[in-house]
Amino acid sequence: MSHKLFLLPGDGIGPEAMAEVRKIIAYMNEAMNTGFETEEGLVGGCAYDAHGSAISEDDMAKAMAADAVLFGAVGGPKWDAVPYEVRPEAGLLRLRKDLELFANLRPAICYPALANASSLKPELVEGLDILIVRELTGGVYFGEPKTITDLGNGQKRAIDTQVYDTYEIERISSVAFELARTRKNAVCSMEKRNVMKSGVLWNQVVTETHKAKFSDVKLDHMLADAGGMQLVRAPKQFDVIVTDNLFGDMLSDVAAMLTGSLGMLPSASLGAPDPKTGKRKALYEPVHGSAPDIAGQGIANPIAMIASFAMCLRYSFNMVAEADRLEKAIANVLDKGIRTGDIMAEGATRVGTAEMGDAILAEFKSL
Amino acid sequence: MSHKLFLLPGDGIGPEAMAEVRKIIAYMNEAMNTGFETEEGLVGGCAYDAHGSAISEDDMAKAMAADAVLFGAVGGPKWDAVPYEVRPEAGLLRLRKDLELFANLRPAICYPALANASSLKPELVEGLDILIVRELTGGVYFGEPKTITDLGNGQKRAIDTQVYDTYEIERISSVAFELARTRKNAVCSMEKRNVMKSGVLWNQVVTETHKAKFSDVKLDHMLADAGGMQLVRAPKQFDVIVTDNLFGDMLSDVAAMLTGSLGMLPSASLGAPDPKTGKRKALYEPVHGSAPDIAGQGIANPIAMIASFAMCLRYSFNMVAEADRLEKAIANVLDKGIRTGDIMAEGATRVGTAEMGDAILAEFKSL
Ligand SMILES: CC(C)[C@H](C(=O)O)[C@@H](O)C(=O)O
Ligand SMILES: CC(C)[C@H](C(=O)O)[C@@H](O)C(=O)O
Q: Binding positions for NAD(+) (chains A, B) (predicted)?
């Protein structure tokens, strides 16, 4: 079994965070004989600077051939004015679409040591553990037409199209139900069926999929606006939330912010298992962005990137014990009061990106 | 000048809440000679039960002819299975569209007496005063095609279309800038220009409108997902937020929940001023829904409905002093510790819907 990792650090704090993952990979190869092979490419603004597109064909081919892609972050004010087709985000969106990474898993967990960092009252977020399952290759992100037309008279018309087919809703809800079985066995599906036809179909297909194959799982439906409210009011009521690409974008960001652990949250984007090998294409990335304001200073929090690598161990290589160990290492380091600036608290020890990475690696070794 | 009010109490707790507004109208007519004429109609599930549509042509005509519409709430489990075209929400959406109520004003304020009811830490929401200006007649709510098509093979395809024209963005952002001038003079525009063409156009037109006519107002742009995060992290950073129909739906609900005052928040939906008379068509409604679970028990909080009437006094009849007085009456009653169940706190006096309405009216009289 190959262990090909393709690293796309991207822009802003992406490269700094990725450097800490490299240390862990190197250690695992040396001490645990994991045999990870790594290659590195460009994505986002840095790719645009290098060759005028947000990701090159060559790097796309490497991503397609890899067992897993580790992705940092893209974008920054430097590229605010580049043409829409080659903006930094286009690289990420192409990866998601061409690798058919339809299932985006975004855990929103509250690290106990950080409950006080949340803007919510600590008792509402302590022990929070939600998994948002977001559809990632459909909806308004990719539907056609997607155009701006000049109507004359100084008027333009912009159009985006939200499209969902039955099979897309079926496969993403199946992922949500399957994951719920490994957790608290409850799924809440969110859409706007009172306004959107895609919401009507979404609701129907989730209901039918549940009835046909997952009736042992508890299923609720909530309107997406009410869902946003409930996330703020009482987030612990949720186990798994399944929703479409755009609602998932909004709701997972709100959920991430609730935890007070935004700089810490990883995500996995998975394709369908290959019918022959059972392998899924996969990309792992932090939920946070490229944070251009602090890039290059060595102060960024690498935990989300490291936790994304833990998800990679779990989902792409079935290295469950190693993933658990890495996650435990992160939690222990936090418990010891070691903190980057974004999660600093009174009495804690402030460290930079590299020191945080080193501390987690040391803890990982010792476990 | 006519003072024609058309009342549409709707479903669930709508009628109970509206009854309290009726008391205030009756008092104002009697004691202050305001000359309000009221008529009442059906909307939502009750309209469907009566004549098979979510609002009758007759009631639509009355809404068109009125100076202002007061709207309660629509919907409930009883009508979950009615056909899409006649579902309760269709009545509200038709009113918004046919009356061309493109500007939805949703204040998210935190009543000082309720800062502790928020799920956020009190210091983050105390004194919160945001105004969300949501575009209400465009976007994915009304764009065509909006269909579900049978593709055969058990596959269906659902399509919704997000459409925005220059003039729609221009007029809603002008409303936002004008209102900002009466407040802290700052507007934050939210869209997803990194993914949506409508976001690209939105951003451009808001920027141009600002430059052409409102350069004295501070303008920021934020991606809508980041905006949702920032609302949870530090809501007081915002003054006026301007955004499209769907993002406005999500973001205003999140903002409303932050305040801890959800049962208290009003909204105004306004049309363009008539070129001759300067009058705007308008509809006023609580942000909360029909709360079918507590309907008919006399325990619902009527404050959002009463505060919506205060907005009506302010925006439709220019009765600014009366609006201020009514809002002050609400705040005073809360300060006295008079509470409905939804905002109950230790040491407060629990009252029902009618008692709350009576207390506010008594306070209003005394001011
Ligand atoms: C960078 C952007 C295109 C992306 C998205 O909208 O999906 C991001 O917000 C995310 O959530 O991963
Ligand atoms: C009832 C529903 C159609 C409506 C909307 O989505 O606009 C509601 O959520 C609102 O925010 O006023």
A: 76-89, 289-301
